[in-house]
Amino acid sequence: MTDNKQHDKKKAIRDWWADAPMTYAEDHGHVEYRLPDGSMERVEIGTRRFYELADYVFFRWNEPLHDVTGKFGRIFDYERFRGKKVLEIGCGMGCMASQWASHGANITAIDLNPVAIEKTTRRFELFGLKGDIREVDAETLPFADATFDLVYSWGVIHHTPGIEQAAREIFRVLKPGGRLALMLYNRDSVLYKYFVSYQEGVLNLERQFLDELGLASRYGDGGRQEGNPHTWPVTDEEVRRELLPMCENVSIKVLGTDVPEALNTWFPRLGQRLPLSWRKALARRWGWSLWITGDKAA
């Protein structure tokens, strides 16, 4: 990709996410939320109530990842990194960064999208949290080598056209003995294989107009709004061979909280009717998210 095309693509990505930030509302980028009693509530973005409702939805989506140590405690070792330098790549509205700050980490949160930076900064102010929040491109991190003890990203770097460069930058700023953790979309998932590639690509004839990247982008985040400029889910093999060959102890787990709802589209409440053991097995094999961890040699 030429420099001009790269610049134009990055600008399109930045602008799209600024116009449709990750609010976790009923529709992507909007601020109407369904409450537990079924009623709807519309809020103003950047208010305390907005953060409370956005967090409520995000936490509910990821319920299996929480434990007694906190939200996402099953995947984040808050105690290990207390007082340590932690970097989040793509902070969105600041939900995860705020968890690290409240658990005593020295958190730095970055995003390409200026709205994300503005709203994460506002969240930290409202809730009395400390953090270094900056507008930064993940492919060109402005940090010295070996700066952070942990670098993580939740569903972000598959949206950058230079995903391999972003992975190299993450590794560069990681301290020897440090850990990286990434959630990336899974191209071997039921959501991609059936709902995107087969249903949209084949049955709805979208392959006449879109390649695989176009399909993934249009029917990934923001699918109801014709998708976003760039989404490229990865495979286990690509992670090990192309993104993180420099890491030690690479572990890849499939997270499948989306699978029950996907099954419900085939048959009403199918996802709830199946035995729990079946649901877990399907989720571990066909989930939309890969949770990837790796270490930098000490």
UniProtKB/TrEMBL annotation:
| Signal sequence range | none
Work out whether the entry's keyword set contains Methyltransferase.
yes
Read off the SUPFAM superfamilies from this record. Answer: S-adenosyl-L-methionine-dependent methyltransferases (SSF53335)
* Single GO molecular function: sterol 24-C-methyltransferase activity
Which InterPro entries does this one have?
A: Erg6_SMT_methyltransf, Methyltransf_11, SAM-dependent_MTases_sf
Mind listing the UniProt keywords for this protein, alphabetically?
A: Methyltransferase, Plasmid, Transferase
KW Methyltransferase (keyword) present: yes
All residue ranges annotated as the Methyltransferase type domain in the record: 87-181
UniProt-listed GO biological process terms: methylation; sterol biosynthetic process
Protein name per Swiss-Prot or TrEMBL: Methyltransferase type 11
Lineage here is: Bacteria, Pseudomonadati, Pseudomonadota, Alphaproteobacteria, Rhodospirillales
